[in-house]
Protein 1
Amino acid sequence: MATQLLAHCEAARRRGDDFPTIWHSILRGHPLVRGLPTHQIQDGEAVIVVRLMNGQSLHSSLRGFWLA
């Protein structure tokens, strides 16, 4: 289910949607999402982190989305 969510988010990003739009249209109401997004700096880059109920996290930066 996390890989499907990742694919949805990445498809929206490729269409030109920004993170706030993706948050409101895909992530906020998704049953796998746990809580609000947080921010981190990873290798000098700002990253938005969305924690998931399965223990994984969905990360977003200018490079795209990925699971960790």
Note: Residues 2-67 form one domain.
Protein 2
Amino acid sequence: MGVQTTVNTEKKSGINTRGWVDKISSKGWVAISLIVAIIFWTILSFIPVTSRSFPNIIVTTESISTMINRGVFWRDIAMYLASKKCMKWHLNLYATCHL
């Protein structure tokens, strides 16, 4: 009987207390995910086999700022989204799918 009492006490205390995972807010999880993604990205940028596909964050931010200064960044994003829309709806009209 002493063992059953101990097991019941452990089950009750497990239900009443929150785990450390539940204590982290949704914004905290977003921050953790972002940090882990940047770390993973940085590791991939140093491996010779993957460095061409995953340049480091400094090179990427410089490239984005160059594209914004040239005025092609938002146009490229708009064209990409338009092409996805056309692919999703299977539109074959040239005038509708091209900006």
Note: The CA atoms of residues 83 and 93 lie 12 Å apart.
Protein 3
Amino acid sequence: MPCIELHILANKWHILKESTFYLNGNDGSSLPSLESSGAGGRPGNPGMNSGNFFGIAQQIVNGNLLTVQLKSGDGGDGQDGTGSPDVEPTFYPERIHVVRTAEDINRQSFQDRIQEYIDQHSNGIVTYYNSKNDKKFDFGVTVEDVKYNYEIKATQTCGPSGIGGSGGKGGYSGYYHFISTASPETAANKLPRVVKKIGSNGSAGDDGRNCVLYRRDVVADTNIVKLFDALYVQDTTFTSSLISIDENREQSMSIISQTFPNSPKSFDITPTLTAYKSVLQENFNNPTLLDIVQKTLKSIDSNEELDRLKELRD
């Protein structure tokens, strides 16, 4: 029963069997996983405070059979942040076959044609950066193995990486006060047991993964054959590989700062004592109860601990 005030005032308490008053606070609820990319996690919900207990007895029998639990709730775990998908340029290569004569081909136009082909089959920015030639001569025929090197860069950068939400704060433990107005010798070893616990803080959520930004290196491999005065460009094949690029990545912070439980409720026993005294005074005309009423009122008015509790606040 979280945040519940339980006040029991009676002249005589007789506990017949093992019993427990549960005034525990609930744990902070968990949050569903985020569905959006690059989002910061929300903090976990705070644990609820336990209730407050106040009791008075002039006489108590088997008080040690009664337990009062004041365990506040644990904070909920923070929500995990989410990352952004990797960014990589695509290239869908196919082998092309080109045959040209000396009249309608030159090296620059062929290189441009290769780049135009890569442009049409990729989704990034294509840049030529070098070529490598390996020549062979065989009976008047010159064969050049030419490798044109290009790189393709993505048109966008990595999205943000979400920071995990902080764990919710544990709840506060409530007040417990049980006063026996009997003599210390009479009350010894007969008071109820109390179990108090402050709620633990929830764990912080995990940060979202950092996405990886890639470029794609493409090699166009072809043979240029020179036979007498004619040039022939044979089959051109493409190979590509992904290369990761380091970059500064933006992080998406948690949406809301850490959450705290409500402040403990004020502990004011004055209204309870006033009502109890009123009930006692209503029995002044009852001869059977008069002696009990007078002793109880006197013990309440002379109890120093009660005087201190009357002004207890947060």
Note: The two ends are 20 Å apart (CA to CA).
